[in-house]
Amino acid sequence: MAYFLGNPSQSTIADLARDDVIDILKSRRKTGIKAKRIQLSPQTLIDQTWKRFSEPIFQKPLAVLPFKPAVFNQKPHCSNNLISLDYNRAAQDCRQAVQNVVQQCTRFNMRYRDEWDLDWDLKRGNGHCLNSLGEQTFDIDEQVPLGCKDEVPRAVKRVSEIFQQPTFLKRVSGDDVRQGDLGNCWFVAALTAIANTEDGIRKICVDYDTKVGVYGFVFYRDGAWIYTLVDDKLYLKSPCWDTPSMQRDLLQRHCSDIESAKESYSMIYQTGSRSLFFAHCKDQNETWVPLLEKAFAKVHGDYASLDTGWMGEGAEDLSGGVTTQVLTSDILDAQEYWDTRLSRVNRDFLFGVSAGVLEDGYGERDGITEGHAYVIMEVHTLMSGQRLLKLRNPWGRREGMWKGAWSDGSREWTKEAQEELGHRFGHDSTFWISYEDLLDRVTCFDQTRLFLDPRWRCCQRWMSMPVPWESRYQNAFLVHLTMDASPLVLVLSQLDKRYYNGLHGEYSFRLYFRLHDENGGRNDFALSHGSYLMSRSVSVELPDLPRGDYTISVKIAAERDPDAKSVEKTIIMECEERTNNEKLIQVGSAYDEAHSKVGAHMDHRGSLNHSPVESECRASCSTSTTFDDSGSESEDKDGAGGRQPRPWNAVCVVGIRIYSKDEHLQVQSLDTRQ
After folding, report:
1. Is 280 annotated in the active site?
2. Is 372 among the residues known to form the active site?
3. Which residues catalyse the reaction (predicted)?
4. 94, 105, 185, 459: which is the annotated catalytic residue?
5. Which of 71, 91, 232, 446 measures 20 to 30 Å from 263, CA to CA?
């Protein structure tokens, strides 16, 4: 119910300018005159409701930590360098950091202990290395009944304490990767695919020292290579001997003495890859998988942040490539897709497949698990003309395996076919399937383009864009291409919120773009490939674009989660106890670092959006102060007696990345304020 003082007519209310309404409310409020309830017309109520979705109040916090303002880039990164230069710079910084740690540890005769300390965090009962901000995926205080599987790690030990003859990168193969007790098949599948390429893993782990226990890794985040160091501590499934457990009690009953029971316990429950809680190697002494996964969890803040995702995004993070998600129902020519894409697996592309993801399926399709990522390891056309693909399940065990034609032991196999493919039955987690059956059973391909040719360059720009409730295309970037018939890969992405999980706010976004000539002609040269599942980025690949000037128009569709907390509300809640919140500092630092890409641009837009008149109108609109019969302020309600919607305040940070072989290519950001 809306209120006005006196008895104005409905037409008068509709005709009053907004500033006049504010002035009347303020003056009448001072007089103390009692308000009479007047129900507004339906159209007026609708108009007032929509005003909250069209006010120019777009704001986004730039920094969330006190006394540590983000260093904003006054000139957004727009270099058109060779891709290899950015990688080489990060790899060299990582090598230098590793060597510095080795020198310090050798000088003081100490093993390396990372500040991101799994052991100390678990023993203190914090769980910051396991859980995201405001969530408790792993309840480390939960008491599990005897005989039940523990769903949280119960101990931490160093590599030298877990493995009898530990090795690192001695044998690197996609067949050696096994998923642990975390729903991160997307990452493990991507790791499997990278391990299937030449030196793929060695490009990620650039330096290490097994004696000191320090390992340096590089990853691709938001258009740039970053590095991190980790120590050699890993989570174990079972508690240490001194902690009461059913396993310890059973061994004590059956062993002749305590020392024998203790030794047996260590060999069975705390030795080798099988004792690890998270991802591990099939080889009981190889350590590259759990240490790489640990480094990936560290840069994201915790292991829980790796739960659920898309293999294509994991492949981007590990390779610096660009992923396009292709629905099988959208493939126009299956033979052409085989010839130009699938046949180049492990050379120019990586592929993952998933089934049932559009139907939220969690069953199986002739053995293929729905809602689960599989890796395409190899493709082959038999001499008979039969097209086959070799897939691997990142679980690393004989589950979730294809049971149809060309599965192990099926009648299609002949001695000649086995010899041609070098296949043996019963191999853990891998199987062959025909191209026709694959297209019929899976929903989508995660197709990741690799940039292995040293001539590839990357030019990028980042900016903040206000997102209106009704999404529309806005001219955002201008591209100057000087090389004729140049291959081009365009990627529009938003900041990866997985890095600051818990501070992602109320809004989620979907991105779209189109490329057209500089004059904004109606004919588009290219449209972004629709991404119905992956939302972090959209892309398009053009084999030969003529030289010239082009405009990239961007459309962002926003959706507000009514149950999610805004960034500012989360900060307030986390600071209520006024104690040192280590997790908030960690996640807040990641948030500030991400948004520093566009700090100067967002400050400029903020000043444009906040004139004194707009601020007063916005304050009035957002609170809509009314009066009850006693003259006191009443709650913000609409004419139907319900609470009015919160003002729409969606802002998205987006970046355009253009990969080409044109050394003179340029990109400019345009003013999107309309």
Report:
1. no
2. yes
3. 185, 372, 393
4. 185
5. 232
